[in-house]
Design goal:
By secondary structure, the chain is mostly beta strands. It has helices spanning 2-21, 23-30, 186-191, and strands spanning 35-43, 48-51, 54-58, 61-67, 70-77, 80-87, 93-99, 108-116, 120-125, 130-133, 136-140, 150-157, 164-170, 174-181, 201-205, 213-216, 225-229, 234-241, 244-248, 254-258, 262-266.
Length: 267
Amino acid sequence: MKKFLVWLLVFISLGALLLRFSDKWAEIFFGIKATSGISILSQPSEAVVFINDKEVGKTPYEDKNLDVKDYLVKLSKEGASWQGKVALTAGTVTVINRDLSPDPTSSAGEILTLKKGKGLTITSNPAGADIEINGKSYGKTPVTPGIEPGDHTILVNQANYLKRSIRANLPKGYNLTISVDLALSEADLTEIQTPVTTKTLEIVVKNTPTGFLRVRNKASLNSAEIARVKPGDSLILLEELGSWNRVRLSNNTEGFVSSDYVEKKSF
């Protein structure tokens, strides 16, 4: 009986080690499959979520029973979309937070991923962004600041891009990787140095998801709407500003429209 108890304890200890250190061996010997989770937030909310091209719900979305592997995640709402690949880690939840925009330069967000280890790793697009953590400077991305586990406020700042503030918790025994995409600031969009067109051009409004195209008073999605034009309407192109065009309407109103929904033609 004593020998049986000894072997039982050895077997239990071995099982515990397998469960702790090898998800693969745990699955082989005990039929326990490692799982991971994903949590997705977006602004605006109620964006449709696709995982590996399958529609699974709307934001805010969460699933904590996913296989440990790479996934293609896509978010879509009202002509604005984002997609990216994420690698899920066993026993952790990967967080995706996105600000959606029809204009890719105005889209921003971050992916937070945990894996066994320690410390914090921050990357950004574009690279070379200044990093502040709890008010202290830690250099430029990519960066691996030496900080202790706990709650931290991370500020990502790059010239001509909107600042991004991230509140994150670094658990003990884990490495937290934060991958940040920054959005161009309104100032950058309106001050891009591009040549003014040297001949009068007409642009035609293409089909849009909403059935109309907004004309704004500045080259920014956050600026005020001053008019609406319909697919097939002709506008005078005054200036090209990256992903925005400055235009004149038939009533001589001047404003800005997204270049994604217009096409040029010469007089």
